[in-house]
Amino acid sequence: MSVHIHTIKEQVFDTVSEPAYVNIESVSLSLSEKIILKDVSFSLPATGISSLIGPSGAGKSSLLRCLTSLYDNWQGTILVAGTNTRAWLGGEDDLRRHIGLISQKPAVFPASIYDNVIFGLSRKERKQDQSSRVEQCLKQAALWDEVKERLHSPANTLSVGQQQRLCLARALALEPKVLLLDEPTASLDPRSKQLIEASLHDLAKNMPVLCVTHDLEQAQRLQGQVIFMCDGKIIETASANDFFQHPERLETREFLRWSVCDCD
């Protein structure tokens, strides 16, 4: 079955009073002559969680890489706090401090828990006592109580769930203004998943959080905005309640019912 994708009408979200902090306007991307993203447009409010869902290969992870300039051959416009990311004053490194990105598989460095948290800081900052910052970031990542007595132990002795929360703390140490997460709980146990989701709710009170997830129940728990992608296109965007209770698009209803999508 082939369904023509119409222009998505303007949606009204629970965050309607929030000004947009991130604006993605008509972003397209091709890799090795294959179209990955097709005219993608949506915005993230200044605070709150947005869940980016869709089948594998929909372009979700590629979109995150465009946002952080890990891909630079995309077309369109990405504005963060009103500034075009292609003209970011501090360059790509500063942009990646401004926009924190956490991948699905935790990557810890062969160093202590403490040193992993401060890894991204400047050499001058790392030479200073960062105990307060480390404690704050580990608390924000819901890890402090579990590691406060062994901050100088090797990070690779932590469980996978703890390592993922350590990666979250490391990203937070750079004081990002936007947080992007690519399947952050896909391989984690239920308790670690619950702790990370609770952290995201707290962090989203002060910044926009965009979470790629295949877990539809997680998207419901996170609430906020849901953005449904398929075949490189945005199919439907709505508040979590409207999206799951009253989906407007046929493609959305089929995906929610069967976890399949035919959006060519």
Give the helix/strand layout.
Elements: E1 20-31, E2 34-45, E3 48-53, H1 60-67, E4 75-80, E5 83-84, H2 91-98, E6 99-102, H3 113-117, H4 123-127, H5 131-140, H6 144-147, H7 160-172, E7 178-182, H8 190-203, E8 208-212, H9 216-222, E9 225-230, E10 233-239, H10 240-245, H11 250-258
Parallel strand pairs: 3-8, 3-9, 6-7, 7-8
Antiparallel strand pairs: 1-2, 1-4, 4-5, 9-10
Widest sheet: strand ordering: 6-7-8-3-9-10
Helix content: 25-40%
CATH third-tier fold name = Rossmann fold
Number of helices: 11
Extended strand count: 10
Run of helices and strands: EEEHEEHEHHHHHEHEHEEHH
Number of domains: 1
Principal-axis shape equals globular
The CATH architecture designation is: 3-Layer(aba) Sandwich
Under CATH, the homologous superfamily reads P-loop containing nucleotide triphosphate hydrolases
Q: Termini separation (Å)?
A: 9 Å
Largest sheet: 6 strands, mixed
Strand content: 15-25%
